């Protein structure tokens, strides 16, 4: 395969669930040939800083937040390139697309946001798991999740969803209705990546 597949969507849209299912499925089919990366990667120093502002423990202006979110990907550039060089397929649970849609919703400029990730490996396929902010919220409270700074406002999540759907039209992103069961969504993902 040797592809970069990006899973995107609102918080609690099912990205982690589907990334795991896809990893297990592909890794069975192509043993040792699949890597999975998630962003934000909270395990690094920059990741810890991201966790702190998402938890409201430190305050930054939107530019600084989105620069840190981008820097967190640059930290992983060599790891991603290494995987690609060895011919592996990479599944990304969020990538630069998150910074575009959330950054726009935070009032930042599209070109400025795009530049932050310019030079990072380009994806082959982007799949947006589309759910309404209401479903995102209901899944959060059903699981007693604590809402982070970006998840607290329904109006903000409406903007993020709008941005996903608008950018999907011009950026060739696949939009998948994701309020169905995990099984149905997973089958559609396999269809999109041509692995059915
Ligand atoms: N298709 C689905 N239908 C109902 N609940 C789901 C579905 N997919 C995931 N969930 C649940 O929603 C919550 C968020 O899922 P998760 O995969 O962690 O989303 P994300 O990574 O996008 O935040 C979890 O509790 C998960 O079990
Ligand atoms: C990776 C990334 C995430 N985000 C936002 C989306 C989410 O609201 C928030 C945290 O990501 P999230 O996927 O919700 O992390 P977790 O599920 O582990 O809590 O950061 C950006 O704005 N830009 C980015 O580049």
TrEMBL record:
Keywords linked to the UniProt accession: ATP-binding, Kinase, Nucleotide biosynthesis, Nucleotide-binding, Transferase
This protein's record includes keyword Transferase: yes
InterPro entries: P-loop_NTPase, Thymidylate_kin-like_dom, Thymidylate_kinase
Domain Thymidylate kinase-like: 7-189
Protein origin, superkingdom: Archaea
GO MF, one annotated term: ATP binding
Enzyme class: transferase
Record's protein name: Probable thymidylate kinase
UniProt source species: Candidatus Nitrosocosmicus arcticus
Gene this chain is encoded by: tmk
